[in-house]
Amino acid sequence: MALWTVHGNGRQLVDDAVVGSGERLSWPLTFGFGLQHLIAMFGTTTLVPLLTGFPASTTLLLSGLGTLLFLLVTRNRVPAYLGASAAFVVPMGAAVDHGGATPGALLGAIMIVGLVVFTFGVAVKALGVRLLESAMPPVVTGGIVLMIGLSLAPQTVSSFSAQPVPAAITLAVVVLATVLSRGMLRRLAVLLGVLAGWTCAALLGQVDPARLDAVARAPWFGTPEFVTPQMHLSAVPFVAPMVLVVLAELVGNVKAVGAMSGRNLDGQVGDALIGGGLATALSGAGGGSALSSHAPNVGVMAAARVYSTAACMIAAVAAVVLAFCPKFGALLGTIPVGVLGGALLVVVGVLALVGVRIWSEAGVDFADPVNLAVLGTALVAGVGDLTLSLGALRFTGLVWGSIGIVLVYPVLRGLADAVSARRDAQRPGRGWQRGQW
């Protein structure tokens, strides 16, 4: 039995068609969509290990293998690419500066985060969808998706501003291809925009010469460097709060894809958490950065309306190949930061609005003071990257935002409902009646 059925004739799509997770187009077109995913994740997945002191090629290899493991665990039902999580950079830096954590200790902490996420996934799968619905209703998941999307806005705008001309060309091509074109041109708008912006930057001499030299010097074949993890408590307190962020990102990915593709994927959340947890544990075991569902890749799917896991598989296999081919990796590394900023400006915006769509379809009441106070505060904390220290521990905006949305909201919701019920019970004609006693 084939892993994917061919959508239509595999070569043409009507404008409103959605390619599902179990479908694919022709392999050349699927490769093109996979390339879009590869470009979307490449910058962060190679930058994060450099910021945290891990080999970039190793993280690239393990992100590809982790994605393949995720697709296997979810049985090709949840499209996703698991890239290096930028949310881990600050807490891991704090673990080194204040806790004296070694690279091996950081990897051990990453493994622990992955195993805890895996345990949550087993619990969700065992207890069923009701656990998810009670813990993360649409008002919560919509807020998570919106926060994750908007949290990328400062970085995206900064990248755009660094090279405004090629960034503007990229943005214009992506928007025009999305709005004015039809068929495959619309679906491949991100790839077309990146190619146009990359060409513009090359003509203007805005491609970093050092990166061009790196392409010339890079060998065609190289073996990634592996690092042995160590189970040491020095890093765990700093990295442990990131469990909540990984949980929020993985659940948000499933909810976002479900909302965009018109499918109810709640039954797959347990498998997604199991797959994501195992992928992160695998990455930590081999010397790679922590992995999570990559928000830009979700935005790429939303823009193209292609949710085929075959495209995610192509991106994962390409990442594995690039890990052993430094020259191709260096070539992708020449994509100017402004070009990526121009493309992500559209992709991140689309992802953020998916969160609004989840709220809209669920009929979330924004006259409710609990919704306004908690969600508003959590979103500002997450988007503004509110970073506070508690002793030697540092908590980033995504942690605070996730705590506010996932943990504080249900508590205040329950308290508000209890107070409201008590008031209703004390009103004449409700609960007890006058003369009842």
UniProtKB/TrEMBL annotation:
InterPro entries: NCS2
Keyword Transport: yes
Main localisation: membrane
Subcellular location: Membrane
Keywords: Membrane, Transmembrane, Transmembrane helix, Transport
Annotated transmembrane regions: 47-71, 78-96, 102-123, 135-153, 165-181, 188-207, 231-251, 272-292, 304-325, 337-358, 395-412
Superkingdom of the source species: Bacteria
Entry keyword Endoplasmic reticulum: no
Membrane disposition: Multi-pass membrane protein
Family: Belongs to the nucleobase:cation symporter-2 (NCS2) (TC 2.A.40) family.
Stated name of the protein: Solute carrier family 23 protein
Lineage: Bacteria, Bacillati, Actinomycetota, Actinomycetes, Pseudonocardiales
